[in-house]
Fold these 2 entries.
Entry 1:
Amino acid sequence: MKKQEVVIIGAGLVGSLLSIYMSKKGHAVTIYERRNDMRTETVEAGRSINLALSDRGIKALKEVGIIDDILGIAIPMHGRYIHTAEGIHAFQPYGKTGEFINSVSRYELNCRLMDLAEHHGVSIKFNHKCEDIDWQKNEITFHVGQDELPVVPFSLCFAADGAFSAARLAHMLHHNKFDYNQYYIDCGYKELSIPAGENNSFLLEKNALHIWPRKDYMLIALPNTDGSFTGTLFFPFEGPLSFERLTTKEAVTSFFKTTFPDVVDIIPDLADQFFNNPTSSLVTVKCFPWIRDGKFCLIGDAAHAIVPFFGQGMNAGFEDCSILNTLMDLHGDDWETILSTFQKLRKPDGDAIADLAVNNFVEMRAKTADPNFLLQKKIESKLHERHPDKWIPAYSQVTFHPEIRYSTALANSEKQESIMQMVMALPGIEEKWDSKEVEDLILAQFNSHTNNNTLHKQA
Amino acid sequence: MKKQEVVIIGAGLVGSLLSIYMSKKGHAVTIYERRNDMRTETVEAGRSINLALSDRGIKALKEVGIIDDILGIAIPMHGRYIHTAEGIHAFQPYGKTGEFINSVSRYELNCRLMDLAEHHGVSIKFNHKCEDIDWQKNEITFHVGQDELPVVPFSLCFAADGAFSAARLAHMLHHNKFDYNQYYIDCGYKELSIPAGENNSFLLEKNALHIWPRKDYMLIALPNTDGSFTGTLFFPFEGPLSFERLTTKEAVTSFFKTTFPDVVDIIPDLADQFFNNPTSSLVTVKCFPWIRDGKFCLIGDAAHAIVPFFGQGMNAGFEDCSILNTLMDLHGDDWETILSTFQKLRKPDGDAIADLAVNNFVEMRAKTADPNFLLQKKIESKLHERHPDKWIPAYSQVTFHPEIRYSTALANSEKQESIMQMVMALPGIEEKWDSKEVEDLILAQFNSHTNNNTLHKQA
């Protein structure tokens, strides 16, 4: 194998993990990161961000041999813990026993991955902002503090610089047929920290992802290792109940008291946090092509930024790395083939997880408190128990089955949803949901929809 | 009315026309144009481009009092002149008698509009490339040859700099929730000039838009005042028959001999033109928002770039100017209201004409030679004759009815198409297409689809 001088733009989660993969393959890897070294700084208020690490991400971390380093800073979440407006609590397991996702702090994870990257011989240069890329000379111009503009040559470059990728912009602006789509949902988000109780005790159920679904908006909270929870309010930008309208501390407190009464008690400085923490927006990015010849490739959010409602942004990016690794094993030095195959495989999957994530936004905020929806999930869960290889709920396919491609999971979920729509419309379904009649009907429909009676798995 | 210092970016068709409108309203207008003054240059080979000026564009030119200047350089086209693969010719009128579109050279039209703009007191500064816009200071930085970077203040700025608008990029990059979508169709285009015959005679029927529909690709030709025609080949970039594969003069000549035999005879230097003229791509751009406060607005292709298959790109841009003019009359100096109303009205129309144009691409290349399609058009044309206010074919709504909004035309056309699909599936429709039975059926369907039995017109 020919050793490459690999340049990675962005020392975020995907850039750092990718650098470890590339370094283990024997390449010389340098990461250029726009920001300062976050390990030397404290976390910005309201920007702590928790992520849900699940099987696709775990698979990649295992592959590269660093899973034990990471699971040490993760908290298992076995299901959704629903807080209804009526004050009722309900726990919905994510999957079968042993199927769970993991709450992990973006900050801690990123720091750990950078440490591991450097440990694997990767050089990380901070405060290097990608300015432009010369596609003829294969040179990247960076902007460094004090108007330095160093020019870096590359033979192979990965852009892992996130949803607002500067490298993607340089790719786009010098491309004559670049398809590009970015769109924002009508909700923004704001982080609200729920502090730990005495002796770092957890003030909510520890091993769960908490959701307060309220139709047009919702609050969620994920546990941290220190006993605190990171809460996130997803809320419309505009309209009768929106960020635009909540302009005084009184209004915020009163809104929370009415809407999330059990939260007001555990966030003493709620209104202060509300006004001190930034309101952020949520974007989906789809684009094509991701690659340029055999020398440049978008990866992670830079290729496919998605909204966070399936907890798959990071997992999708880590899976990108894993698939790239497989292609390197298959095609050796043939980077034209590696990158074009990567794009061909992953573009439909990137599009699919973007759509799944937007769909799940509707589900999470509007339906997790709806009795019909809960009944539907109960039927599906029972079916899955009885026919574990045939009927896998969409959430499980995406979260616990890395062998099923995102694009296949999307197709499967659309098929399952259309069957369940029909089933939920049956007269008396509330009584007979657990009957053989209903089960047989679903299976007959499922078989008539499917060619080979099994879910399509990843080749 | 308060006199504004208006900056328009781009001296293309829309920028030039807009400058006349603004100047007539009493504002001080300066246009900054990236390129050299085209009036001092000769037309680039393969970049002559003919446009179809129709009623929406004409309405705007009349409003501003320059229609006579323009019609002098236009050639009426009364219908499509179809050249089938079998060598059959057929003429399809565009509308009723007196309804026609006008072939006009982009170059001549643009030169004329710039002359008229200057005549109206507009100052045009050439070789000024928009580099960036400072949205706090309201200043635009331009790049002028020899690395001059003049900074121009503005109180009101219109970006009329086309599909690849630099001003839109400055708007997008400094915006925290900008929806943006650009996508390319799989076909490119190449211009091929058909010279005039002796004494500037026309070698094809003069007053028609010629089409050689061939399913996956097509050739069209529009007349010029000097007897020549500008031909344009719309052709796949990749695939068995594509620009990628036609790599030798022999291959080009042989392809044209087989596919467009009547064209080979009238373009003596066909293969030379094919390789000398550039291959261009076709993009659709949708974005939002178009405006920033009461001081900046995208207009024309910069706001809504579309593919050329409905002949509406320029007409839509001219209509933008006309609607802006109406809003200036209504709202005087209230630019916040003028621009926000403009965006509210025109965004759905820009989206609609973009979709109509892509749909018409399919219709033009695939269907204009299809007997079923021709029969459908014949039925619709007869219906229109008998019920001129009730059934207006989509093409007519878009082309000859500026009082019908694009978004309404799209909704109407979808309704009509679904009715016609049902009608075309009737057994024996070939025989009974002109019967009272069929007419009554269509009208009954139409009425049941429509609330008030008339097409929705523009308020």
Entry 2:
Amino acid sequence: MHKRLQAYLEYYREELQKAYTSRFDKLEIPANLKQSMLYSLDAGGKRLRPILLLASYEVYGQDVQKVMSSAIALEMIHTYSLIHDDLPAMDNDDYRRGMLTNHKKFDEATAILAGDALLTYSFELILDDPLLTSEEKIVLAKELAVCSGPKGMVGGQILDMEAEKQSVSLEAMEEIHALKTGELIRFAIFAGAYLANATDEQLHYLKQYAYYLGLIFQVQDDILDVSGEEEKLGKPVGSDELNEKSTYPKLLGLGGAIEQKEKYVQKAYESLKLADAEDSLLKALTDYFSQRDH
Amino acid sequence: MHKRLQAYLEYYREELQKAYTSRFDKLEIPANLKQSMLYSLDAGGKRLRPILLLASYEVYGQDVQKVMSSAIALEMIHTYSLIHDDLPAMDNDDYRRGMLTNHKKFDEATAILAGDALLTYSFELILDDPLLTSEEKIVLAKELAVCSGPKGMVGGQILDMEAEKQSVSLEAMEEIHALKTGELIRFAIFAGAYLANATDEQLHYLKQYAYYLGLIFQVQDDILDVSGEEEKLGKPVGSDELNEKSTYPKLLGLGGAIEQKEKYVQKAYESLKLADAEDSLLKALTDYFSQRDH
């Protein structure tokens, strides 16, 4: 990994943690609920989504404090979705990134409520941010609701459940991914650039970029589940096979999946160029995500 | 019940159903998710919260279309909380109002996601309403997040769980109720009056009113669980006793609980008077809720 990118990732992971920690310090809520919310937030690993948001902002804008509430809100939405996903009724996972999942560390009821609380509080964070104009608050909070709700992530989760244990086409699989993981990535890229006053044309091509980036992320996930190292992943390899999930390697073979990823990377590059973001950290992040080993 | 009140309740229940149905008709989301969301929305009985919102608006304002998105959003939040509350990990209820609970009708995973979807979509509804000004959207969506999130309803649910199987003081119990059920009632009363341009003084006293109304609602719930008729309630009587919950009858005796309710009713009347809402439907609703048999 480039030194510059690595330093960037480390720096912003720390900034994000500081930012949400200081907000939680001031938050007067039941202690057990706060602990449960923070447990899963702190367990967060790569901070992919908020870092994409920061990177997208920095293509066109300056002081990242402007986007910090949106970045944290996005990470909270992602975290809530993982807590609910891990529940026995859903994926029934006891561990995530080598740590106990929320419902194993606390209990199921607390985990459900901690997820609900993170989801709800994410909107308050944005709507209460003094650094945002009224227009910005409305656009961002509404977009967050669209991307994460029934038209977006939650819709994708339902489709994903329905597609389990049956073979689906590449197109159907990509539609599921576009909703389930793609919409939050789209929010990240949109929110950053929007708050940096990117033009409508730039936003248009960034939306395209976000679409391909989401697919890159997913195909690499599928590839790692076949060929990754358990120690780096922090989870068992081969779980997709076990769960009879439709994946890129299953539909295209491992070689085909890697080829497909390369196609998406080229598309992502093209979109970035058209959005005047060719030399930005977004490009380095695209490479990073397409080559990550965990 | 007064004929006028009855007609009012019936009329607005229909209006509310029409309003959310027309929104769901236009909503392009996975069919199974929509069915699950609508199943629980349609199963809604009294529509207490949105009707309070409409009644609060009508004390000072005219065309109720102005508050319809807030009223539906509130009912969706209430509905999501019931779906999650009924889950096996929480109250583990198979029936609600004589109908199968969401996770029994569908499955647990779908119920969790339908709850998440209702919660998230409620914010979109308000933020996307062309009848609201930017300022109104922000105030309402933020207030909804505060009332329903970790500082409000969800916080109350956590405290309620912690208080189970131990005896708590009347004060502690009332704090739990104020959060768990009171905050959504506060939102209802606030949102209606705010959108009708009530003065700050009126809003102040209405907040007091909402506090007492919430307690009235709770004490009557507790009373019905001891002395109600199962057929009217649509649920077994005595479940609080079974769940070792702290209730008004347990702390004060049945007679003491009824006396306490009367005190709250008087306080509620006083607050309404100070808010210039003495002769409004809110007063009739106060009586209705304090005397309801289901």
